[in-house]
Amino acid sequence: MTGKHFGTAIDINDCSKFYGSFTALENINLRIEPGEFMCFLGPSGSGKTTTLNLIAGFTDLSGGEIRLDERSIGNVPAHKRNIGVVFQHYALFPHMTVARNVAYPLRQRRVPRAEAAQKVAQVLAKVHLEDFAHRYPSELSGGQQQRVALARAMVFDPTVLLMDEPLGALDKKLRESLQLEIRRIHRELGSTFVYVTHDQEEALVLSDRIAVFNKGRIEQVGTGHQLYTKPKTLFVGQFIGESSILQGAHKVLGGDTVLDVGGVAILAPGVPTGAEAQVILLRPEDVCVQTPGTGPRDGRANVLQGTVRESIYLGSAMKYEVLLADGTPVIARSTTAGTAFHIGSQIELAWRPTDGRLLTDDGSVGGH
Fold first, then answer.
1. To which H or E segment does residue 87 belong?
2. What single DSSP character describes residue 364?
3. CA distance linking residue 209 with residue 36, whole number of Å
C-alpha cells in the first residue's frame, strides 16, 4: 500500500430500482462522507445489497443518480469506478496461490511486476498473511480466505471499499476477531467503507454511522448511539437492540402525555402528533425490577405489576421476561447484586418517563 489516503464521498440522490412490478428501492437519499465507515443494516430483502450493487455498478439504476466526489457515475462501468468489493463467498481462484489471487487486480491494471509484488507483500502484511503467500485457497481456513479476499480488494488502493456480509459464513468467535481487524484496517487506510449486514451487533461494532433499511427505503441514519437511544420509527427501535413495547391510548393532562396501559396511567416522554394509538419503547437496562409494594422511587414514576415468566443468569446481570396482566411481555435487565426473582414471582417494573420512547404505531415519532 502507498500510505494513508482519504476516501471518496458518495452521494445517493433519489435512487430507485425496479424489477418489473417489484420495487427493490424507492427514492432513497444518503450522503456518505469521505473516509467514513457506513453500515447498511436491515433484514433480508430490505434493499441494502441492491444499494451496494448500484454503487459498485453491478446493477443499473431505474431512477436517480449516484455521485462519487461530485462526479456522476451512472455511465461509468464497474471496472472503471476504482471501487474494491468483498463478497460473502470469497470468490477466490482455486488454481492460484494467495499471492496471485491478491495480485489479480494489479495484473488487470497492467501494474509493473516489481511494483505489484511490493504492493502484494504490503497488503498481505496488513491482513497478517505474509507467511501464506504461496499457499492455495484450499489450504486455508475460512477466516484466512476472507482475509485474502479483503487483501485483493485493497491492493489497488481503492478510495471506496464495499463489503457485502463478508463475515456471514464464519463462526461467532472468528467473526468478532475479524470485525476488529476490519476496523483497524479502516483506520489505517482512510478509505470510505460501505458494509452490508443484517447483524445489528456487527453494525454497532464496526460503523461510524448506520443506515437502517426496511422495505426498499431508509428508515433512519445515525450513529449506533443515536439509533439505540432515539429511534425515529418503531421498526428502528425494535431492530436495534432489545426492546419492549407498551401500547395504549394517549391523552394530555396538564402538559404531560399519559398512556393508558391496561388501566394504569403511564407518563410518556413528550407529546405525540397524529395517530391516537401510541406505543412506548423501553430498553431492558432502563427497567428496574423490584419487590411488590415498593412503588415509585428515584424518579421512576411509572410502575406496572407483572409475573416473571423467564429468569436468566447472564453472569454480570439477570435478564427477566415479565408478563403484564394483559399478557404483554416486558424485558428487564438488572445487575446480579440485587435480589434475584424466580419464575412465577409477582414483581413490579419501574422506570423513569424520560427513559421511554414514545412512537406512533405507524412509525412516526412523538416529541422527546
1. none
2. P
3. 8
Contacts of 338 (CB under 8 A, 6+ apart): 289, 318
- What sign results for the dihedral spanned by CA atoms 244, 250, 256, 261? negative
* Residues with Cβ within 8 Å of residue 112, at least 6 apart in sequence: none
Q: Which residue has the cell 454497532?
A: 204
Q: How many residues does the chain have?
A: 368
Evaluate the CA torsion angle 174, 180, 184, 190 in order and state its sign: positive
CATH topology of domain 10-234: Rossmann fold (3.40.50)
What is the Cα–Cα distance from 167 to 143, expressed in whole angstroms?
A: 8
Query: Cell for 321?
Result: 421476561
User: Between β-strands 256-261 and 244-253, what pairing exists: parallel, antiparallel or unpaired?
Assistant: antiparallel
Q: In what order do the strands lie in the sheet with 63-68?
A: 22-32, 10-19, 63-68, 71-72
Is residue 248 within 8 Å of 266, Cβ to Cβ? yes
User: For residue 334, which of 308, 358, 296, 359 has the smallest C-alpha distance?
Assistant: 308
Per-domain residue ranges of the chain:
10-234, 242-360
**Selecting from 3.30.870.10, 3.40.50.150, 2.40.50.100, 3.30.70.260, what CATH number does the domain 242-360 have?**
2.40.50.100
pTM here?
0.88
d(CA 250, CA 248): 6
The whole-angstrom separation of Cα 152 and Cα 137 is 13
Place of cell 435478564: 319
Residue range 254-313, pLDDT digits in tens: 667 788 887 888 888 765 555 555 789 999 999 999 999 888 888 889 999 999 999 998
Q: How far apart, in whole angstroms, are the C-alpha atoms of residue 60 and residue 354? A: 46
Q: Return the DSSP state at 153.
A: H
Grid cell digits, residue 285: 437496562
Chain CA centroid to CA 8, Å: 21
User: 263 CB contacts (<8 Å, ≥6 apart)?
Assistant: none
Q: Summarize pLDDT for 330-366 with one digit per residue, the tens.
A: 999 988 666 789 999 999 999 999 898 888 776 544 4
Enumerate the β-bridge partners of residue 19: 22
Cell triple for residue 18? 425496479
Q: Residue 138 belongs to what H/E stretch?
A: none
